[in-house]
Amino acid sequence: MKIHKKIMIVEDHPAYREGLKQVIQGIKNLDLVGTAENGKIFLDLLKKTIPDIVLMDIVMPEMDGLEAVDMALEMYPGLKIIVISGHSEEEYLNIIIHKKISGFIHKSARVNEIEKAIKMVIDGNQFYSEELIQLLKIKHQKIDSNEMPRLTQRELQILRLTCKGISITGIANELMLSARTVEVYKAKILHKTGQSNTINLIVYALQHKLISEDDIHND
């Protein structure tokens, strides 16, 4: 029997919060264990119940999502958080990509994309919406004129799987390698490309045509 996963919604807009509830009700083995209108209420809820995954808005009264993300991850580093925001301003994107979140969805996302993001993150993967990828791609249009680093075939394999949002464990299983070996390869790829995290690696790979836009997420 599949284990049920617990989820919380942190969203100040009643109508959108209700819409997210309906999406969650349509996903098997997923239990809504709490909702909060701001980050402060969310942190109070965490004292009673620790969810497996959180859908987190950014702009909220009293305590916004960015502060709540930092505090929640400090208390529970393994918490999986998907940021959901209608904001695409550069200031928000710069902050979001440097936080240890598991995914990002734009509020314009359709139901099937929200479901896909939740399922991928529950499975230990990452999910970044096309809106975020495109905005970051535009923001980083200038490509360094220095010679591109030489990646081995194995590194290219792992790069492409990483850009799909597949977890270290998932990549290890697919390529029949140990998780530790995949971690070493990923560290080498980040070092060679000069990137600091997965989302920046995706942008780099798109810019340098190491992947196509169709390669970004699993179907």
Brief synopsis:
The protein has 219 residues and is of the alpha/beta class.
Structure description:
The protein is of the alpha/beta class. It folds into two domains: 5-138, Rossmann fold; 153-215, Orthogonal Bundle (Arc Repressor Mutant, subunit A), CATH 1.10.10.10. It is 47% helix and 14% strand. The chain has ten helices and six strands; from the N terminus they run E-H-E-H-E-H-E-H-E-H-E-H-H-H-H-H. The chain has helices spanning 14-25, 39-46, 65-75, 90-96, 111-122, 130-139, 153-163, 168-175, 179-193, 198-207; strands at residues 5-10, 30-36, 53-57, 80-85, 103-106, 127-128. It has a six-stranded parallel sheet. Helix 1 links the parallel strand 1 (5-10) and strand 2.
What is the number of helical segments per DSSP (H or I, 4+ residues)? 10
Number of DSSP strands? 6
Tell me the structural class. alpha/beta
Overall tally of structural domains? 2
Briefly note the CATH topology name of the largest domain: Rossmann fold
Helix percentage range: 40-55%
- Taking the alpha carbons of the first and last residues, their distance comes to 25 Å
Radius of gyration: 18 Å
If you average the pLDDT, what whole number results? Answer: 84
Low-confidence stretches: none
CATH class of the largest domain: Alpha Beta
Q: What is the ordering of alpha helices and beta strands?
A: EHEHEHEHEHEHHHHH
**Outline type:** globular
Could you say what the CATH architecture of the largest domain is?
Answer: 3-Layer(aba) Sandwich
Report the sheet with the most strands, covering strand number, pairing sense and barrel closure: 6 strands, parallel
Strand content: 5-15%
Order the strands across the largest sheet as they lie in space: 2-1-3-4-5-6
